[in-house]
């Protein structure tokens, strides 16, 4: 479903009609082409024609026809069109109804429509989408468009180095408030913070919580995101609260008009030890055996295999290979030969080796 309020620049037309105190034409279109449905809820520039954008996406102009009772054009192939007028001066109570942010929207005074005509195909199909507590069809439509919009803004407009992707969290939180930024490992922290601020500032209703993670983290796996926040972020250094932002899309009860944004840098700041799981080749071999035994179907969630994060040396790699080939006893003999006294438990071996090298020098 899509609506046309006075053609392109609907908000400007509303202001114009309110100032002139004249009825504003509107047409509600049901059952239009998917590309029109997709374009309808997008937040385009205020003077941009949604139908023109839909035609550009489709690769050809959208066929339109003039309404019967109002001066508007609507898609010619629509199933149903409801035409009417809105009085911008007279408002009536609307609601309560369920909202996409997950709470009931209570009554507000809003504009109502006086229907002037209903036109339709001979055998129309009433088309509806599910728009409710997310995930829903409407949030999927937004997510598909918003993520590349944010990525293009950060990478192409602001020139953020190292940005690899943008993921808007959809379940329950409804796409807009929570944003995850994915950065290449080794990206300078100045670029990470430019990205965090840029994402929170692009739209007034988006980016209440923005989290930057390294590219080994799958942002659709919130467990992995929390793992990154728990072990890669120092709150006193890596969390910033930016004041004076709009309340955004959300329940109105108890909300303040002046909200804030929380920006979190949960990227790797230095090389880390490998993930403590068998490497991919062993996990894939285990998966093959699992399937051969016809055990219950697996649905592995990332991270599902070990991988290096930079803090690993050849000696430890040798120990690991011996562990899986049965040569662990040789490793034991080598570590036994390094016994020494006068040390406290959990002293890092490489620190001792480093000091030994300095003393030998």
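-> sequence recovered:
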């Amino acid at each position: 479903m899509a609506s046309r309020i006075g053609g392109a620049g609907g908000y400007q037309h509303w202001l114009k009609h309110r100032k002139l105190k004249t009825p504003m034409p509107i047409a509600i279109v049901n059952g239009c082409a998917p590309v029109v449905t997709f374009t309808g809820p997008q937040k385009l520039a205020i003077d941009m024609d949604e139908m023109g954008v839909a035609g550009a996406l489709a690769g050809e102009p959208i066929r339109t026809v003039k309404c019967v009772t109002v001066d508007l054009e609507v898609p010619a192939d629509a199933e149903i069109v409801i035409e009417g007028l809105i009085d911008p001066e007279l408002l009536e109570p609307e609601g309560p109804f369920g909202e996409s942010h997950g709470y009931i929207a209570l009554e507000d005074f809003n504009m109502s429509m006086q229907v002037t005509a209903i036109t339709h195909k001979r055998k129309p199909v009433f088309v509806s989408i599910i728009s409710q507590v997310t995930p829903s069809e409407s949030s999927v439509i937004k997510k598909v468009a918003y993520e590349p919009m944010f990525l293009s803004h950060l990478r192409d407009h602001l020139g953020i180095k190292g940005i690899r992707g943008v993921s808007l969290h959809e379940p329950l939180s409804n796409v807009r408030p929570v944003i995850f930024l994915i950065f290449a490992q080794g990206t300078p922290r100045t670029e990470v913070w430019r990205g965090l601020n840029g994402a929170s500032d692009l739209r007034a209703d988006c980016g209440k919580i923005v989290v930057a993670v390294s590219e080994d983290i799958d942002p659709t796996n919130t467990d992995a995101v929390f793992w990154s926040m728990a072990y890669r972020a120092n709150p006193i250094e890596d969390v910033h609260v930016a004041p004076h932002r709009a309340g955004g899309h959300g329940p109105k009860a108890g909300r303040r008009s002046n909200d804030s944004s929380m920006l979190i840098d949960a990227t790797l700041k230095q090389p880390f030890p490998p993930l403590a799981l068998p490497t991919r080749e062993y996990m894939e071999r285990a998966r093959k055996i699992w399937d051969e035994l016809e055990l219950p179907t697996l649905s592995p969630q990332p991270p599902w295999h070990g991988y290096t994060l930079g803090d690993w040396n050849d000696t430890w790699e040798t120990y690991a290979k011996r562990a899986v080939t049965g040569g662990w006893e040789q490793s034991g003999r080598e570590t036994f030969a390094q016994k020494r006294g006068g040390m406290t438990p959990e002293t890092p071996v490489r620190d001792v080796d480093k000091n030994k090298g300095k003393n030998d020098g």
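The chain has three domains: 2-120, 137-266, 280-360.
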